[in-house]
Amino acid sequence: MNIAVLIPCYNEEHAITQVVRDFQAALPQATIHVYDNNSRDRTVELARAAGAVVRHEPMQGKGNVVRRMFSDIEADIYVMVDGDATYHAPSAPAMIARLVDENLDMVVGARLHTEEAGAFRAGHQFGNHMLTGFVARLFGDRVQDMLSGYRVFSRRFVKSFPAMSSGFETETELVVHALSLSMPVAEVETPYFARPEGSVSKLNTYRDGWRILLTILALLKRERPLALFGSIFGALTLLAVALAEPVVVTFMQTGLVPRFPTAILATGIMILAFLSLTAGIILDTVTHGRREAKRLHYLSHKAPGAT
Q1: How far apart are CA 56 and CA 38, in angstroms?
Q2: Mean pLDDT of the chain
Q3: Which end of the chain is more exposed for a tag (fewer CB within 10 A), N or C?
Q4: Into how many domains does the chain fold?
């Protein structure tokens, strides 16, 4: 099979040579593609010297790089890994074998059980658990390390992925894409290492965590609008009933409506509730049409283990 290793990079001169050489040793039949994202150091020079095919994406952000990689590269199997030398290249053959043997579309290199000091920055493991659990409750509990940067994809996954994100939230979008189309996915536990000396993480804990959370909510609106707007309908209905209850009780006892502002407010909130429900129903119909189109495009490509 034609295997492509995709490495998004931004200022990774301290790690990129090791990453390229490790994957050349683990997957000698694969083509190593390094996509530079406006690095200001020697990343490009060192990647090319190590034997990688170097390409460029001028729009800053990992999501933009992923969109470009998935658009440019033609392969049967795609291995995507960060260029920071924290992931275990020798695990790639086993991940590919599982993808092919079980006809999967995505295999995630789960790195939650590492014991190496300094592998996770403070708060990252907790944030990963929290965000992964949130996605599991909304879309399905099938991935334990949603934010891993080490994945193997089938061609039909890559060529049906819309890639709308621009930054680190792209990992969330990858998982939700698989879950929304009910794709077969799996995880393989892999070792996870600390960055080489001199290498610095580009992930901002709070800013990127907030962006990932907003992405989850946006994906909920896009993929499960009836659940989102139905929840808003329920909350507004409860609020309207709570406001209207004393007005209705007073009217039943006296035949009078002494609190007109409250009655008007409750009526307005109930109207908003039904508008929300109507929007959810309409958007849910649109979402089903979009999902059918994506599913048909996905099915136009062969499964990785198909003969």
Answers
A1: 8
A2: 90
A3: C
A4: 2
